[in-house]
Automatic annotation (TrEMBL), chain A:
This is Cobalamin B12-binding domain-containing protein. The keyword Zinc does not apply. The lineage of its organism: Bacteria, Bacillati, Bacillota, Bacilli, Bacillales. InterPro entries: Acid_CoA_mut_C (IPR006159), Cobalamin-bd (IPR006158), Cobalamin-bd_sf (IPR036724). Its cofactor is adenosylcob(III)alamin. It holds the Pfam family B12-binding. Keywords: Cobalamin, Cobalt, Isomerase, Metal-binding. NCBIfam families: acid_CoA_mut_C (TIGR00640). One of its GO terms (molecular function) is metal ion binding. Residues 4-135 form the B12-binding domain.
TrEMBL record, chain B:
Residues 32-542 form the Methylmalonyl-CoA mutase alpha/beta chain catalytic domain. The keyword Isomerase applies. Keywords: Isomerase. This is Methylmalonyl-CoA mutase. One of its GO terms (molecular function) is cobalamin binding.
Length: 146, 546
């Protein structure tokens, strides 16, 4: 077994809706990843710092308050300032499809909108971090939650 | 059951056995959202059912003796976005369309006590609600709206005292006496720690602010609902129906305990406690949930807290249809979901109702979507006939059985929370948060395994989705709001501001002092929400999560 994929799940801005972030954190753990969840109200600076400190392979941002167009690109800027632009950033939440091209242009790798399955997300991350590696089937059973 | 019935039932069972051989049932195990087993048939009344009459203890059948035959529920659509000026326009539009009460949505900086020019507010100003920095914004928000005729609900929690004082100050300027103002502040901090996330201060000073409001309003603003104890967000965060009721009632008990401990008499504040529930998809379970909640609260207030006033026993509640049940896929289907959820709320005896708009999984609602949502309520009220008799589902074997079952399951949770040491303790230990998260994760798995079907999402999908026109909040708003805040700070009387903030700080340091008079003075001096909350941050500290 290789090294586990490390994921930072972060809530930028003031949005308190963390059901999605928590569910995704749990699902990615069940897919064998190590997940660090930042908790609420993180600034782009805090998120970039945490990503570097925790040496993560990917950052997942969640926003349901409409602030994604401001905050997602800011996180990428802060990563660039710290020479960490190689850490891919993906996003999710309530994000109108017309905003997606703008976010991709600003460097976000992919946006998962409402209704996306966690298996799809997990497989996307695996392919992103370890391209070409044979992907495991999603687990049939759920590990008990912390 | 008499002999004839026995024979009939045996006959039916035989028929079922034969039918099952050819048509097996769709599921081995039918359950509600709360995992209550749903039987094939309900054919007898549950034992120990305590229905009572409408308007009478324990209020299973509703809190008024005539319910909607006298007065329909209040149609109250939650609205707010962008600037005070824009939101004022939406409010006037909704009132013209026949809405009967206002419900203000504030943006996140306002809800968390930051001014629009605070670094923390970047990107959030005016996004999920209206931006309010000072009394000047509140004056513009309520411009031309007669506060003696319209009741106003405000979704504000950690800084509820500040926004309430702004509302009182606007009423004062309109010449409406405090005793005539009606409305509700959400003011429910415990569910913010549990599920919604707009907390500022730690539990202890937060509970003080809440009891200060109870006391002040009892003396001066007697028609205002001082709190709306909310299960809505607990459900949205992923709880089931039983957990929604249990955690909400446990929180309610914590507020009653805190107020009594601060020296108030239960009957002085309990009549102004209001509740706020969710209406989700499982139709009969939701109806039973509302009926059970009323019965449980009545018993607790009478038996545990020895309240003597009947008003203290009555659980009055607002309902909103379930935002998390809406899909981004085929958004027009959401109109149908909302209709059924709203119907459940009405059959459950709600006092007021917000119906969600079809596009809320995508963004804030457009004016057209908001109108359809309001029309949905009006069709239920005026066309369906369901409001013409009281509690029409009473006596349904299934609904009565579910009502009793939910009551029992809620009791079990309440005992567990009592064992932990009450709701505040349970929140601090993360107990409710864990319970909710486990259920949320299970729901997600059930959807992904197709054990739970969501039309348009995991079945009956479209190849290509057409995205409807969405509401756009003006991106230049943040700058304009900041500019107007700077202007107000420049124009106000700085001496009065400093004096008011100093008094506020003095009062904050003395736990026995009611903070409301000092907040009211500060608001009238055009101190901003951020300035007032920063004084409290410095004196009370900040909550940082479990």
């Amino acid at each position: 077994m290789g090294k586990k994929i490390r994921v930072l799940v972060a809530k930028p801005g003031l949005d308190g809706h963390d059901r999605g972030a928590l569910v995704i954190s749990q699902a990615l753990r069940d897919h064998g990843m190590e997940v660090i969840y930042t908790g609420l109200r993180q600034s782009p600076v805090q998120i970039a710092q945490a990503a570097i400190q925790e040496d993560v392979d990917v950052i997942g941002l969640s926003s349901l308050s409409g602030a994604h167009k401001t905050l997602f690109p800011k996180v990428i800027e802060e990563l660039e300032k710290r020479d960490a632009a190689d850490i891919p950033v993906i996003g999710g939440g309530v994000i109108p499809s017309e905003d997606i091209p703008y976010l991709l242009e600003k460097g976000v790798k992919k946006i998962f909108t409402s209704g996306s399955s966690t298996d799809l997300l997990a497989n996307y991350i695996k392919e992103l971090i370890e391209p070409g590696k044979k992907q495991n089937q999603p687990p049939k059973k759920i590990a008990h939650m912390e | 059951m008499d002999e004839k019935h026995h024979a009939e039932k045996a006959n039916w069972e035989k028929l079922v056995d034969q039918t099952l051989k050819r048509f097996p049932e769709r599921s081995q195990n039918f359950t509600t959202s709360s995992s209550i087993k749903v039987k094939r048939l309900y054919d007898s009344e549950p034992e120990s059912n305590q229905l009572g009459y409408p308007g009478e203890y324990p209020y299973t059948r509703g809190i008024q003796s005539t319910m909607y035959r006298s007065r329909l529920w209040t149609m109250r659509q939650y609205a707010g976005f962008g600037s005070a000026k824009e939101t004022n326009k939406r409010f006037r539009y909704l009132l013209e369309q026949g809405q009967t009460g206002l419900s203000i949505a504030f943006d996140l900086p306002t809800q968390i006590g930051y001014d629009s020019d605070d670094a923390m507010s970047e990107g959030e100003v005016g996004k999920v609600g209206v931006a309010i920095d000072t009394l000047a914004d509140m004056e513009q928000l309520l411009d031309g709206i007669p506060l003696d005729k319209v009741s106003t609900s405000m979704t504000i929690n950690a800084p509820a005292s500040v926004l309430l004082c702004m509302y009182l100050a606007v009423g004062d300027k309109q010449g409406v006496s405090l005793s005539k103002l009606t409305g509700t502040i959400q003011n429910d901090i415990l569910k913010e720690y549990i599920a919604r996330g707009t907390y500022i201060f730690p539990p202890k000073p937060s509970m003080r602010l809440i009891t200060n409001i109870f006391e002040f309003c009892h003396d001066y603003v007697p028609k205002f609902n001082t709190i709306s104890i909310s299960g809505y967000h607990i459900r949205e965060a992923g709880s089931n129906a039983v957990q929604e009721v249990a955690f909400t009632i446990a929180n309610g008990m914590a507020y009653v305990d805190a107020a009594i401990e601060s020296g108030l008499e239960v009957d002085d504040f309990a009549p102004r406690l209001a509740f706020f529930f969710n209406a989700h998809n499982n139709f009969f379970e939701e109806i039973a949930k509302f009926r059970a909640a009323r019965r449980i609260w009545a018993k607790i207030m009478k038996e545990r807290y020895h309240a003597k006033s009947e008003k203290s026993w009555k659980l009055r509640f607002h309902t909103q249809t379930g935002g998390s049940t809406l899909t981004a896929q085929q958004p027009d289907n959401n109109i149908v979901r909302v209709t059924m959820q709203a119907l459940a709320a009405v059959l459950g005896g709600t006092q007021s109702l917000h119906t969600n708009s079809r596009d809320e999984a995508l963004s804030l609602p457009t004016e057209e979507s908001a109108r359809i949502a309001l029309r949905t309520q009006q069709i239920i009220a005026y066309e369906s006939g369901v409001a013409d008799t009281i509690d029409p589902l009473a006596g349904s074997y299934y609904v009565e059985s579910l009502t009793l079952e939910i009551e029992k399951e809620v009791q079990k949770y309440l005992e567990r929370i009592d064992d932990i040491g009450g709701a505040v303790k349970a929140v601090e230990e993360g107990y409710m948060q864990r319970e909710i998260h486990q259920n949320a994760y299970q729901i997600q798995k059930n959807i992904e395994n197709q054990e739970e079907i969501i039309v348009g999402l995991n079945k009956f999908q479209l190849e290509e989705e057409v995205e409807p026109d969405l509401l756009k909040v003006d991106e230049t708003l943040e700058k304009e709001q900041i500019a107007s805040l700077i202007k107000i700070k420049h124009e106000r009387d700085e001496n009065a501001v400093q004096k008011a903030l100093a008094t506020l700080r003095d009062d904050a340091c003395q736990p026995q002092v009611n903070l409301m008079p000092a907040i009211l003075e500060a608001v009238k001096a055009y101190c901003s929400v951020g300035e007032i909350c920063n004084v409290f941050r410095e004196e009370f500290g900040e909550y940082t999560g479990v």
